[in-house]
Amino acid sequence: MHLQVESGLSYEWLAGLREICFNPEWAPLAYEEFRLKEYGRDRGGTWVDEIPDGNDHSVNAVRYAMMGDVLRG
């Protein structure tokens, strides 16, 4: 599977979860990354179907760790 397709699938999978819990005292950076992550906007302020890259090390670590579940559906 192509990396960009897997990336999109894993973000959709995470977005479909009822909740993602982090203890802000134990994992403050991960907590902030997930709290602030959102889809991008175009110049007019309209939401686009793309997650901007950057400040996402914890998000990516969780996506990669869960990729087996994502691909199994």
Please provide a written account of the structure.
The longest helix has 13 residues, at 3-15. The two termini are 14 Å apart. By secondary structure, the protein is an all-alpha fold. Helices cover 51% and strands 0% of the residues. The protein contains four helices and no strands. The relative contact order is 0.20. The chain is globular, with a radius of gyration of 13 Å.
Number of helices: 4
- Summed over residues and divided by their number, the pLDDT gives a mean of 87
Helix content: 40-55%
Topology as a string of helices (H) and strands (E): HHHH
Number of strands: 0
Low-pLDDT segments, ≥5 res: none
Strand proportion: under 5%
Structural classification: mainly alpha
**Rg (CA only):** 13 Å
Main beta sheet: strand number and arrangement? none
- Give the end-to-end Cα distance, rounded to a whole number of Å: 14 Å
Query: What's the overall geometry?
Result: globular
Give a quick summary of the entry.
The protein is mostly helical. It has helices spanning 3-15, 28-36, 57-65, 67-72.
List keywords for this structure.
73 residues
Layout of helices and strands:
Elements: H1 3-15, H2 28-36, H3 57-65, H4 67-72
